[in-house]
Give the backbone structure.
Amino acid sequence: MTCIIIVGTQWGDEGKGKIVDLLTNKADAVVRYQGGNNAGHTVMFGNKKFVTHLIPSGILQGTTSILGNGVVINPSELINEINELKGMGISVEKNLFISNQSHLVMPWHLKFDSIKENQRGKKKIGTTGRGIGPAYEDKVRRSGLRIGDLLDKKRFHSMLKEIVIEKNQLLELYLENSDENFVAEEIFLEFEKYIKILKPFICDTANLINNLIDKGKKIIFEGAQGTFLDLDHGTYPYVTSSNTIAGGACTGAGVGPTHIKEVLGIVKAYTTRVGSGPFPTELFDENGVLLQSEGKEFGATTGRSRRCGWFDAVLVKNAVLINGATSIAIMKIDVLDKFETLRIAKGYKLKNGEICQTIPQIMENFTPVYEEMPGWNCKTLGITNYEELPSEMKAYIDRISKLVGAPVSIISTGPKREHSIIIEPNKLFS
Ligand code: GDP
Ligand code: IMO
Ligand code: MG
């Protein structure tokens, strides 16, 4: 393993955090390259559970952890996460590096995220409310503030004063008859505290990462969200505001594509989605309820219930292509232990009777075409030996692999690090 990208192949929450943690002891550094604290990556070690939102999951094993230029950072949330880690006895001082080019999530981004969602009414995206969309909007408009801007307090102060004028005009436009407004001096005072804490971590991370690559170090790029939440390739407009796919690692970390050796697609053995937007295989019956309860499908960031449905091979096949996945990890297979019969969507039947294998631009007016497979009806939580898996489960895994067009390199049978089956030979662990 030299450079490997770990990427979600569905709508997020596939189990990326668990796999990053599993591979971290083979890595010299772990890098987040997009998104912000909208992410919630759960890592379970021993009897402890930790959810990382911004800091790469590798930090839990004391690995060099880098927040790349493509990430948007809410400084107060980042400091909370640093303090939480410290409280658990995990050292961040020597291990955390933050790109000077990463953009700041400012108080108005949170406010506008919530105002916009209210305005959308029934068409709301169901965002995490963390200000992510508005922060990326400002980045694209070329009017955002970057972490590096904190390093020159005087300059930051004057930039802040200028921006606050515009943001207050916008606020007035959005909220007629409200006396709410942003006060530059108050924000500056708050940020002065953040500057003191974050200053030692800020650097040119693209340079740092490329130096590590030159030295032959092994690097994991930890994707957040999932392929169908990607701004370009997802179910637009019900997406997040960054490029979540493997390609995003190159822009979001400043690494050339020629350095990437492996792309590991993280695949939940069924499908979930948080927030609004199309979901062809969504279940509204007792099977959906069973997936929800067995999979403990509640958002790691917002605590919202995740919508649940059958495995959708059309989605994941397209994710394998878009990400160039070299192999996949099948996650949460144990959650299916109680099902008599399982269904896999292998095509979408359009109104004219045609069956399509690609993702329609407007995801409506079609029905999934399912095939059925027998369930295994036995407990598999924590199995670590492939041979011990029930034959029906092996058949289900083989079928998924065939339909999506990628080999399986890891099977996850439970939330803990050790609840994993590594399929040998495995380049990821070499
Ligand atoms: P991420 O955002 O992709 O890192 O995923 P989340 O952490 O949001 O959600 C995945 C959830 O499934 C977490 O609660 C994990 O602890 C849990 N999990 C991961 N792998 C497995 C598994 O194989 N089996 C079970 N039962 N739970 C798992
Ligand atoms: P991880 O990394 C699942 C979803 C939100 C919403 C949409 C846009 O844990 O897999 P945003 O706040 O980003 O503007 O919301 O994206 N979303 C996620 N869903 N897992 C995530 O992250 C998500 N991050 C954002 O629910 O539908
Ligand atoms: Mg998550």
Summary: The mean pLDDT is 96.
